[in-house]
Amino acid sequence: MPESSLPQIPGVRLASVAAKIKNWQRDDLLLIDISEGAAVSATFTQNAFCAAPVTVAKEHIRNGNIRALLINAGNANAATGERGIDNARSCCAAVADALKIGAEQVLPFSTGVIGEHLPLQKLLDAIPVAADQLSIDGWDNAARAIMTTDTRPKTTSRSVEIAGEQITIVGIAKGAGMIQPNMATMLAYVATDAAIAQPLLDELVRDAVSSSFNRISIDGDTSTNDACVLIASGATGPQIADKHSAEYERLKAAIVEVHIELAQAIVKDGEGATKFVTVQVQGAANSEEALQVAFEVGESPLVKTALYASDPNWGRLVMAIGNAGVEGLDTAKVDVYLDRVQVVEAGGRAAGYTEEAGQAVFSKPEFTITVDLGRGDCSEHIWTCDFSHDYVTINAEYRT
Amino acid sequence: MPESSLPQIPGVRLASVAAKIKNWQRDDLLLIDISEGAAVSATFTQNAFCAAPVTVAKEHIRNGNIRALLINAGNANAATGERGIDNARSCCAAVADALKIGAEQVLPFSTGVIGEHLPLQKLLDAIPVAADQLSIDGWDNAARAIMTTDTRPKTTSRSVEIAGEQITIVGIAKGAGMIQPNMATMLAYVATDAAIAQPLLDELVRDAVSSSFNRISIDGDTSTNDACVLIASGATGPQIADKHSAEYERLKAAIVEVHIELAQAIVKDGEGATKFVTVQVQGAANSEEALQVAFEVGESPLVKTALYASDPNWGRLVMAIGNAGVEGLDTAKVDVYLDRVQVVEAGGRAAGYTEEAGQAVFSKPEFTITVDLGRGDCSEHIWTCDFSHDYVTINAEYRT
């Protein structure tokens, strides 16, 4: 990706600096400054052991009027008790000082090793330096500053015309690289210069996350620090408050696309991943059971090792489908396709199926497993990757 | 293990023969003949894609008066539709002919590759041969005949004095060897010469399985063919029908022990497993949440790769605990111990904890992770193993 490939978002300035939280040579601290009057929404991890910054961010966002985000890599500030909370608050206060805003207008985020205290002084020293370097051109550097062991930055953008004005959307994310930080923390920041009313934005971030980050599986674990933030700076165009307007529909579609592209990029950069697989479940009675089956298939270690081996082992697929706990599933109505190759028909091996045809699909770097439950009209999909030797190597490597 | 190390169970005769279901040189068909008047109970897989023999066995056991079991290795007769059911019934009929009993008095079991039809004629040819070789000394051969890719047979026995008579219990099982059959089918057969009333035996098999096979995790997948059978031949001692009698308590304890020893042997022989780990959850409000946390820890790929690496990565442990979905969990009350070394205290790193102490425990081939939730008095435990490079190699190998 060329330098400065991401467009500017009027109303949002960024600065990345090297706070030396770990002994890295690279930037590890990102400050995002948001203009007054912007709307900010976020979703956070459901893990009961949520990290200190998550606790503080949830508290601050309740009051609205958020003006800055501070993200550090290298230390998750998780499982750090009261001192962790105090450290997160101290960072917010330092940002507030530097930007002349209130500390409760700052959302803190951390990703990295858990159970160790933040090197607070390093962050406090770096924050004013970052505040002096804020720039509207900072998105590409930002995407790199939040990486932990991601092999590449994850960025995307869209442009939409709304009421005659060109609206821009930029998204950056970090994903499932766990060698050093030991945690598959996913962080995503999406910003637009559109003006979206706060209640609409709150709904939009939930919808977007539900169609993107909540539909991917690297290994079924949820981190203590996961968060996704959506910023509408309001710098361009009219205020959008009607969820049934064509303008909002178009804008929403583009914002959801940005989330999906970032989520897929995280799966593709999953630890040791060599395959990117869509699991599509159709013919379900409802959305819940469709997702149950999709995740059971997409998270089964036996399925994931078969993906790695390019082995169209359909016995493992039916086993996983059967394990999903779908009440009253009639297995004699279940069909399974590997791309367009039917492998299971009425619960058994499809008449025309050949190992060669299945093998040809499983050998591709990207393909779709489609399960038809034959129970209804609902369909859902998730994205997953394989379990490789490298997954074990990466995750079994001693923390250094 | 020396030959013929397992004792006889009066009232139960066995024969193992080579039906050549696969191109193996070894025995792959086991016939168990049970004397008239015995009680037989069983539990079966909850997988919706249950195999044809499971469907037939569930139907037959409803009528009681079971007189024979037929178990084949090498082909699971799963995902085989109506023809699979017909094949399982034909096998039962052949056993009935050979033993002069009713076909509905036979329980069929299969383990092996799924989605392929049984080589029926080979089984029909082998069944009369087996019927001619039935012997009260057949348990050790039986344990080997039901193996698929298990690296060793799993057997155990106990002896208990009940009302002045010596009662014997024998158990054999096969476990999580998946190279060839592609499925981690668990089969277990436990027999005693005690006389146990059918309703009590039905309860006993459920209790025994719940404390043993339902508390192990190799990779979180449940097979299409899993089954556990408990036979009380009634050849020795008085009929036991009072569940509150001291005799029954003693007998039950010994039978449960046999189940637990077989379940643990399956984990220890888990594919590529190098560690045997007990996950103990205490201080839970109820048994359900204790098991939820135990399985979340014991099945997390991040925890299992850390076990393999002998890396006391307690961040992954708290992450898994936090992911278990325990409503209202107060993480500030959570303690975690590695054997006797406290690693987490009040949700954070324990004051006296050192990496060296944690490392010493994680380097052992067997140890216990204890989680105290600080919410109540309930405790539960499960047994798990690590995820190794060999797990991926074994499961990624192409079916041959």
TrEMBL record, chains A, B:
What does the UniProt entry say about where the protein is found?
Cytoplasm
Q: Could you tell me which InterPro entries the record lists for this protein?
A: Arg_biosynth_ArgJ (IPR002813), ArgJ-like_dom_sf (IPR016117), ArgJ_beta_C (IPR042195)
Q: Which chemical reaction does it catalyze? A: N(2)-acetyl-L-ornithine + L-glutamate = N-acetyl-L-glutamate + L-ornithine; L-glutamate + acetyl-CoA = N-acetyl-L-glutamate + CoA + H(+)
According to its UniProt record, which residues of this chain constitute the active site?
T185
A Gene Ontology annotation in the biological process aspect, one of them, is: L-arginine biosynthetic process
| Gene3D superfamilies, per the entry | ArgJ beta chain, C-terminal domain (3.10.20.340), L-amino peptidase D-ALA esterase/amidase (3.60.70.12)
Note the subunit structure.
Answer: Heterotetramer of two alpha and two beta chains.
What is this protein's record name? Arginine biosynthesis bifunctional protein ArgJ
Coding gene?
argJ
